[in-house]
Design goal:
- The protein has about 160 residues and is an alpha+beta fold.
- Helices cover about 20% and strands about 30% of the residues.
- The protein has one helix at about 1-35, and strands spanning about 55-60, 60-65, 75, 85-90, 95-100, 105-110, 120-130, 140-150.
- The strands form two sheets. Strands 1-3-6-5 form a four-stranded antiparallel sheet, with no helix packed on it. Strands 2-8-7-4 form a four-stranded mixed sheet, with no helix packed on it.
């Protein structure tokens, strides 16, 4: 047994020296890397807040020629709208339904609800209390005019 230990003694010593050198190199290389890397503190920035405002209406406010008494009116905003917060006044009165679609939450859509737009009647629509879903308020009312002229001439094409 002693002879076996003597026989492998140099192998154990060589392995031990190799392990010490490896550890020393590893520790030295880590120390150099940490000195050469500069750590720059990053201050988190918040993205610029988008103002909540009306972008456009479709169709535009005012007269139009249409044969669709159930036509919709849409209001596009810069942010998703809490459609349940909107208070609508219409003169003369008409029953309107207000929705915001899942795929376009920034578009508020109004349409007659079991009623129709009457031709040659000017509807004044006022939207109040308009809020985005994150709580921003539009701050002012929207006044919209809907006037539908009945179609007097329908061109089917051809001669």
């Amino acid at each position: 047994m002693k002879e076996d230990l003597k026989k492998y003694k140099w192998i154990f010593i060589a392995a031990l020296v190799l392990m010490i050198i490896t550890i020393a190199l590893f520790a030295f290389s880590k120390k150099q890397n940490s000195e050469s890397v500069k750590i720059i503190p990053v201050t988190p920035t918040t993205p610029a807040k988008t103002a909540f405002k009306l972008l456009n209406t479709d169709p535009p406010s005012g007269p139009r020629s249409t044969s669709d008494g159930g036509a919709y009116v849409s209001f596009t905003f810069t942010k998703p709208v809490d459609y349940k917060s909107v208070v609508i006044q219409v003169n003369p009165p008409i029953k309107l339904r207000v929705v915001a679609f899942d795929n376009k939450k920034n578009v508020l859509v109004m349409m007659p609800n079991y009623d129709t737009w009457k031709p040659e009647v000017t509807y004044k629509i006022i939207l109040n209390n308009i809020n985005s879903i994150d709580g921003d308020s539009l701050g002012n009312s929207i006044e919209y005019t809907y006037l539908s002229h009945a179609l007097t001439n329908v061109n089917w094409g051809g001669d």
